């Protein structure tokens, strides 16, 4: 699923660039602040509509630029070839096109670009809010189950309607909205359960290859008492929900619990071990996506050397190479990229003060 060509302008300190990329590994190196991470950020903006570095897009926009323009030529094993074009204006307007036709949903671009990010903040998947882990599960379900996005929108609509009834204290309407809420909640919950059942053995295999000394368990909490039906839980919590004005239980409160010896992994593992576990989660997700769809994930690995020693860096890179997917890896030090691991096919790019140049010709 390689990005063959990438054009970017208006992103942070990056000078306008037009890169011919490798379908295998793309090494990007440069000093701190040179702009190498901004290349990954541009790819993420196209793939998800969001930055992985900031929640405010105004911080991504170059100081004197009128907008952000990103263009990509993408080749997909299943969908074929396409040209994606994104224009984000300073005022907030966003125009997204696929082969010249305007897209009405970010999801359509996301389907073309299944991107996974491994960066110095990825340990937040363990230590951050339950929402981070719900999003992780839903990434996998979204890219495998074509109907999931519509089903998720239906659930969110039902949740919004139920919350409105609670806020207005319209108790007589609750049975009406409970029915639709429960039905859509059960669909979302079953998708997640089915996905995690398939995912767990793949994660255990990948983690064992990265570091067989770390024992981690995954447990799914649906967002309500697992020993009770959701209908019973909603009935028990009705009075409290009315007081609070929102729904306490449901798939919007689901949680993936990641533990070591029955304790939260974030409280037991070192930062380096946490990053290893998160890398295993994301590589396993890409491997399973590939098995189930015959498509490959695009991996963005920012600051490879951060908190990973040489042994774990090599193991991580080898797993990515075995997936035969497109990879972008950044580092301050070129030697830490290329000395421990020389993939069969790669390109090397050097970023200096926002200018990007190819270091070497492609290796076939």
The helix/strand order is EEEHEEEEHEHHHHEHHEEHHEHEHEE
Strand order of the largest sheet: 2-1-4-5-6-7
Per CATH, which architecture of the largest domain? 3-Layer(aba) Sandwich
- Reported by name, the CATH topology of the largest domain is Rossmann fold
Q: Counting H and I runs of at least 4 residues, what is the number of helices?
A: 12
Percent of residues in β-strands:
15-25%
Note the main sheet: 6 strands, antiparallel
Number of E-state strands: 15
Helix coverage percent of residues?
Answer: 40-55%
Shape: globular
Average pLDDT level: 92
Number of domains: 2
The CATH superfamily of the largest domain is identified as P-loop containing nucleotide triphosphate hydrolases
The SS-based structural class is alpha/beta
- Please compute the radius of gyration using only Cα atoms: 22 Å
Name the poorly predicted regions. Answer: none
Name of the CATH class of the largest domain = Alpha Beta
The assembly state of the depicted protein chains is: single chain
**Distance N to C terminus:** 17 Å
